[in-house]
Amino acid sequence: MDVCLFCKIMEGEIPSAKVYEDENVFAFRDINPQAPTHILVIPKTHIPSMDALTPENIGAASACLLAIPKIAAQEGLMPGGYRVVSNCGPDAGQTVHHLHFHILGGKALGVGMA
Ligand code: AMP
Ligand code: ZN
Q1: Which of 50, 53, 57, 61 is nearest to 89 (CA)?
Q2: Ligand 1: residues within 6 Å at CB?
Q3: What is the phi/psi pair of residue 39, to 5°?
């Protein structure tokens, strides 16, 4: 049985507001949005974080990167723009240990990163 929250979301065991899906990628709205548009983009392969990337699994992660501009276009985030964030480990505040990319946009975001 899967114990990973995002694997369960991807498999439909836990409901989510899906915005995009392809063979390798699943994307859904963050339950606690930090901007008018806040989407999480995850690989369908379980990878715990950026720190677990390898030559063998990089394809799953790069599929997310290719999906991000498609999702941004679908959400009308261009030409205004958007921010992409991936928290890795405790100092970054990673709370779900399945690699994910936050897409934040829909307003002029603050300039600070930390
Ligand atoms: P991070 O802190 O980078 O690990 O991000 C985890 C994100 O997952 C947070 O922004 C949470 O709001 C979000 N999140 C947690 N549970 C859910 C859920 N069931 N559906 C959608 N987003 C979630
Ligand atoms: Zn997972």
Answers
A1: 50
A2: 5, 14, 16, 28, 30-32, 40, 87, 93-96
A3: -120, 145
pLDDT in tens, 50-61: 999 999 999 999
At 49, is the secondary structure helix, strand, or coil? coil
Q: What is the DSSP letter of 12?
A: T
Average pLDDT in the chain? 97
Instruction: Mark whether 98 is an active-site residue.
Output: no
Residues belonging to the chain: 114
All domains in the chain, ordered by first residue: 5-105 (3.30.428.10)
**Residue 114: predicted pLDDT:** 84
Supply the residue whose CA is at minimum distance from atom 20 of ligand 1: 31
Digit-coded pLDDT (tens) for 30-48 = 999 999 999 999 999 999 9
